[in-house]
C-alpha cells in the first residue's frame, strides 16, 4: 500500500492531501465546510471529494492505507467526538461513519495534536520522538508527542497547553471560563491586549501609537527597535516561557515547536520565550531546543496522514 | 513464561518481588543498598539475591519473563541513568549491566513513574489507562500513564510534577534551585513549613501550638476540627489542586492517584485538593476522579514487574 490520505477539518474549509507512505505530498486541495444542519454534510462531502480524487488519479482502493482526519475538538482514541464548538456536530463516531462512507480505514484525532505529529514527521521536529508544539493563533492550541505518538488522553483533550494557568492573579476570564490561561497572553488577541495595556500605562513614545494594534504590528515594531514593543514582547515571552516550562515538566520534550500565525514573526521571538522558560524549567529540561514550525497550514494534513499510517501498522 | 521480577531501588534499601504475570505477588523481600564506591555493589547485590531466590523457589530461568527495575533518577527508554542523587552512580547502563549479571531481560524505569504504573496495574488505578500519580513524601514525585504506558520523555524526566511552578511570587528556593515549585508546599516538609508560617502569623488558638509540627500533626488536628489546621490544609489543597490542574491539562487523566507518606491521612484531604483543582481545571478534565493510593510501599515493585511484562511483550 503506497498511499494515504490526510484530512484537516476547519470551521470554514476542509484541507485534504494525498501522500505516499514515505511522506511525499502528491496533491492537496480544499473544500468548503458546510456546517448547516449540525454539520451533517461534512463527512459525506469529504467522502465524495476523496472518491473524485481517487478516480482522477486512477488509484486502486487497495493501494490506499487509509484516511487520517483532524477535528477541531477533543477526539477519543476510538475516534469519537462528543461535541464541537465550530462544526455543529454533537456526538459523532468519526472513524465508523467515514469508514462506512469510503470503505477505507479511518483514524480521527484532535487537530492540534495532529499538527504536532505533522511537524514531527515532516517539519521542524523531524527525527524527534519527544516534542511539544504550541500553536499561537486566535487562541493557543497545543499538541505533545511522546515516544513518537501524539498524546490523546482519557477525553481526547491532552496537551491543551493554552489553558495552563500562568497568572494566578488574573481577574479577566478566558474563553474557556477560567482565569489566567496562557491563551489570554500568548494568542494573537492576547498579545494585542498586552500591547493596549502597556500603551495605556504611560506616555512613552512608540511607533505603535496611533496604529492598529495586533500581534504583527508589535513584532514589526520590535524589529524596528521600538522599546515599548520590546517590553510587550518581554511580557509575552514571560507568560509563554513559564507556561511551556510547566508543560515540559510533564512531557520532557527534546524540542518545542512554535507554530500558528503569530509564529510568522520568526526566530526573533525565541530568545524572549527561552529566557523565561529557563527561569522555570526543571534541570533535566534545560537543553530543550526551540524551533519555529515549518509546515504552516500543511501541518494538519501531514499529521493526519501520519496518524493513519501508525494506526494501520499498529505502532 | 509464568513469572517476572520487580525491583525498587531506594537510597537505604532495595525491595524485590516475585510475581506471576497475572499480577500475584508470590514473595517479596529486601536487601540493603550498599552505596560505597559509587554504588558499584548495587547491581551485583541484586543479581546475587535474585539467584538465591530463584534457586530457593526451584524456578527455571526460562520460566521468568525478566526483571523490571525502578531507579530514583531519570532513566531513558534504553535504561540509561546519567546521574543519581542517592545511589552514588554516575552514568550507568542499567538494562545492559543487570542483563549481563543475570542472563534475564531487564528494563529500568524511573521509580515514581513505576509507582504510577504499579497503582494502575494492581492498585487504585486498576483498569485505568490514563492516570496521574503524585507521591507526597519528603519531596513530591510524580508519574503519568498515558494509554496504559508510563511516560518517559526525552531525558527520562517526564511527569516531574513536584517541580511545576504554582507560585510565581515565591522567593525561597526549592531543592531543585527554582522558586515556587509544588514540592515547596505539598511535600511533608512543605506542609510543615505552611503550618509554621500560619502559626507565626497571629495568635489564634490551635491544638498545634506547642507541638512538634509535621504533616501528620496537621492532618490529625484537622480531624479534631482545629480551625487553624483547616486553614493550613486549605493552603496545601490550593497549591496541590492548582498544580494538578495544570498537569491534567497536559495528560488528560481519568484518575489522579495520591500516594506517599502524606497520603496516609486518607480521604479527608481529597475535598481540599479537588476544590482548587476544579478552579483551574480545563472543562474536559472536570470529571477526573481523585483516589488515595492503595499499594503503599509495594507500588514500586508492582510497577517494575508490569514494566518488564510490557517490554517483553512489546506493548
Structure characteristics:
315 residues; Nucleotidyltransferase, domain 5; five-stranded mixed β-sheet; homodimer; alpha/beta; 20% strand
In brief:
Chain A has helices spanning 36-39, 42-56, 94-102, 111-122, 183-186, 188-201, 215-223, 227-251, 270-280, 299-312; strands at 3-9, 13-20, 25-32, 64-71, 80-81, 92-93, 106-110, 131-136, 140-146, 149-150, 255-259, 289-292. Chain A has 315 residues and is an alpha/beta fold. The interface between A and B is large, with 48 and 46 residues.
Mind explaining what this structure looks like?
Two copies of one chain form a homodimer. Chain A is an alpha/beta fold. Chain A has two domains: 3-118 and 297-312, Nucleotidyltransferase, domain 5; 127-294, Nucleotidyltransferase, domain 5, CATH 3.30.420.40. Helices cover 37% and strands 20% of the residues of chain A. Chain A contains ten helices and twelve strands. Chain A has helices at residues 36-39, 42-56, 94-102, 111-122, 183-186, 188-201, 215-223, 227-251, 270-280, 299-312; strands at residues 3-9, 13-20, 25-32, 64-71, 80-81, 92-93, 106-110, 131-136, 140-146, 149-150, 255-259, 289-292. The first copy, chain A, has a five-stranded mixed β-sheet with strand order 3-2-1-4-7. In chain A, α9 (270-280) links the parallel β11 and β12 (289-292). In chain A, α2 runs parallel beside α3 (94-102). The model of chain A has no long low-confidence stretch (mean pLDDT 95). At the A-B interface, α8 of A face α8 of B.
Amino acid at each position: 500500500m503506497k498511499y494515504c490520505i490526510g484530512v484537516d477539518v476547519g470551521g470554514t474549509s476542509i484541507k485534504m492531501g494525498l501522500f505516499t507512505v514515505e511522506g511525499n505530498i502528491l496533491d492537496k486541495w480544499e473544500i468548503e465546510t458546510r456546517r448547516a444542519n449540525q454539520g451533517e454534510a461534512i463527512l459525506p462531502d469529504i467522502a465524495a471529494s476523496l472518491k473524485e480524487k481517487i478516480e482522477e488519479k486512477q488509484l486502486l482502493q487497495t493501494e490506499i492505507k487509509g484516511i487520517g482526519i483532524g477535528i477541531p475538538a477533543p477526539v477519543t482514541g476510538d475516534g469519537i467526538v462528543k461535541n464541537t464548538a465550530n462544526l455543529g456536530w454533537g456526538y459523532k463516531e468519526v472513524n465508523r461513519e467515514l469508514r462506512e462512507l469510503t470503505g477505507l480505514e479511518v483514524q480521527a484525532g484532535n487537530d492540534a495534536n495532529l499538527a504536532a505529529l505533522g511537524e514531527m514527521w515532516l517539519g521542524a521536529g523531524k527525527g524527534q520522538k519527544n516534542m511539544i508544539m504550541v500553536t499561537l493563533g486566535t487562541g493557543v492550541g497545543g499538541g505533545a508527542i511522546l515516544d513518537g505518538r501524539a498524546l490523546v488522553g482519557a477525553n481526547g483533550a491532552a496537551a491543551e497547553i493554552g489553558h495552563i494557568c500562568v497568572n494566578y492573579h488574573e481577574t479577566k476570564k478566558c474563553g474557556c471560563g477560567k482565569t489566567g490561561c496562557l491563551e489570554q497572553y500568548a494568542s494573537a488577541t492576547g498579545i494585542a491586549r498586552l500591547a493596549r495595556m502597556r500603551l495605556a500605562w504611560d506616555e512613552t513614545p512608540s511607533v505603535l501609537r496611533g496604529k492598529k494594534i495586533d500581534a504583527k504590528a508589535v513584532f514589526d515594531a520590535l524589529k524596528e527597535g521600538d522599546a515599548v514593543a520590546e517590553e510587550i514582547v518581554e511580557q509575552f515571552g514571560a507568560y509563554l516561557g513559564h507556561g511551556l516550562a510547566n508543560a515540559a515538566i510533564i512531557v520532557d520534550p527534546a524540542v518545542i515547536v512554535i507554530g500558528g500565525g503569530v509564529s510568522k514573526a520568526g526566530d526573533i521571538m525565541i530568545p524572549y520565550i527561552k529566557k523565561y522558560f529557563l527561569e522555570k524549567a526543571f534541570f533535566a529540561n534545560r537543553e530543550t531546543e526551540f524551533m519555529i514550525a515549518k509546515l504552516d497550514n500543511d501541518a494538519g494534513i501531514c499529521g493526519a496522514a501520519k496518524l493513519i499510517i501508525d494506526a494501520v501498522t499498529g505502532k
